Amino acid sequence: MQKLIVQGGAKLRGELDLQGSKNSALPIMAAAYLCRGECILHNCPKLTDIYAASRILNYIGCKCSFADNTAVITSAQSGHTAIPEELMQEMRSSIIFLGALLGKNKTGTVSYPGGCELGSRPIDMHLSSFRKMGVDIKEKFGRITCSVRKSIHGAKISLPFPSVGATENIMLCAVLADGETVINNAAREPEIKDLADFLRCCGAKIKGDGESSIVIEGVKELHGCEYTVMSDRIAGATYLAAAAAAGGEIIIHKACVGCMEPFISLLDQTGCSIYTIDDGIYLRSGLRLKAVRDCIRTMPHPGFPTDAQAILMAALIKADGTSVFEENIFDCRYRHTDALVKMGADITVLGKTAVVKGVDRLYGARVEATDLRGGAAMVIAALIAEGKSEITSISHIDRGYEEIELCLQRLGADIKRE
Ligand code: UD1
Fold first, then answer.
1. Is 259 a catalytic residue?
2. Confidence of residue 116 (pLDDT cuts 50, 70, 90)
């Protein structure tokens, strides 16, 4: 079992190229399955979730190879259309492959992606949307078997909540469906736009991505293309939060600055200096951070991202004053707070709300990563704690951060993997 050992107290200084986005690369890899010929995807992050997606692609008949952050995916004309439970369980977002299986083969069998560390993660919106498009769905013993009597047809779908995964799944199914699909109340996350950009490069007809109504006109065929996955806005938020909390001066390159605005505008309230130029973000932090005066409410994009909630919280543990968080996306996303409290933080959680009273000192401790972003929050806390911390269960962190310890070492942190 690997762990991260962090000696707190170092300021962060230096420059970093941001990794490619996990949440973009995963649906784009699923989309490559829909294309005839070869897709070359640059800027794919080296992450366990990406390797899990490669295994699914290989199982369903693609040839997927991976070298130097480039994935080459050649979709086969035939292959399995049922994904075994073991592969489905390897990552939470495996459900995204159902839309791709249906889009291409008009049939597909998957399992529920499993219980999740963020609370229940239902897929009712995914399934009801597929039903509207003419898909027959049978559920038995945790397996979901989908078939189509005639054809998959376009439909007008109004999502009760702008779910990222449901929007992506509908897009994957609709690009090769008969006729027009309209997704109302669609997710507006930047990763949706990246998926649409990739699909357009492959010949899909999509309009409105990035807005609440997405219109997709089904086409007969998609072809391969060469594409560069967008950079990871949550990894970017993590390194900025770490430098803000630890003090120092860093520049992040290859950032999607516009996408990170909801995070940057709140981090700005802590008193550090942040400047953006093209795809670069400069941050300088010296004095004690100030608490964030506005309630930090997680909301669908362009609101404050739930994936950055734990990260910003960790940066505010030692801030001057009290910061208040409200988690509105997932019902169980404060599990990291126990570890932060163990390190000396003053955090009170009541339902959706967490109140963080800034403390003067934090102490190194042995803590266990509870989930991907919660684990990253523990790394940030360890960087600003006195003494040594050990973070275990770091497989959670490796799902989303490419060589987190090397990136932080490059910035001067005292961190190693054992
Ligand atoms: C994606 C991201 C995840 C991020 C989340 C919200 C990926 C791989 N993951 O997850 O990092 O935290 O968006 O920005 O891109 N819901 C339902 N029924 C459904 C679908 C969703 O009730 O059929 C609920 C969920 O339980 C949750 C909320 O909707 O409470 C948001 O979920 P969703 O936007 O779908 O998140 P994911 O796509 O799973």
1. no
2. low
Cα gap 336→399, rounded to integer Å: 16
**Residues 111-140, mean pLDDT to the nearest whole number:** 87
* pLDDT score recorded for residue 150: 85
Q: What per-residue confidence (pLDDT) applies to 345?
A: 98
Closest ligand 1 atom to 168 CA:
38
Q: What pTM was estimated for this model as a whole?
A: 0.97
Structure token digits, residue 110: 């998957």
- pLDDT tens digits, residue range 43-86? 999 999 999 999 999 999 999 999 999 999 999 777 899 999 99
Predicted local distance difference test score (pLDDT) of residue 107: 95
Q: Is there an atom of ligand 1 within 6 Å of 125 CB?
A: yes
Instruction: Give 277's contacts (C-beta < 8 A, 6+ positions apart).
Output: none
Beta strands in 260-345 (DSSP E): 273-277, 280-285, 296-297, 322-326
pLDDT at position 114 = 59
Distance 375 CA to ligand 1 centre (A): 19
Contact 197, 27 (CB under 8 A): no
Distance 387 CA to ligand 1 centre (A): 37
Confidence of residue 273 (pLDDT cuts 50, 70, 90): very high
The CA 155 to ligand 1 mean position distance, Å, reads 22
The Å distance, Cα 279 to ligand 1 centre, comes to 27
Read off the tokens for 378: 């523990």
**Edge-to-edge strands, sheet with 156-158:** 156-158, 180-184, 214-217, 205-207
Q: Can you tell me the distance from the alpha carbon of 44 to that of 59, in angstroms, rounded to the nearest whole number?
A: 20
302 prior amide bond cis, ω within 30: yes
What's the confidence (pLDDT) of residue 79?
82
| Ligand 1 close to Cβ of residue 23 (< 6 A) | yes
Instruction: Tell me the C-alpha to C-alpha distance, in Å, between residue 158 and each of 166, 167, 180, 182, 192.
Output: 11, 10, 14, 8, 16
Q: Going by CA atoms, what residue is nearest to atom 5 of ligand 1?
A: 164
Catalytic-labelled residue, pool 39, 44, 64, 116: 116
Q: Is 126 in the pocket of ligand 1 (CB under 6 A)?
A: yes
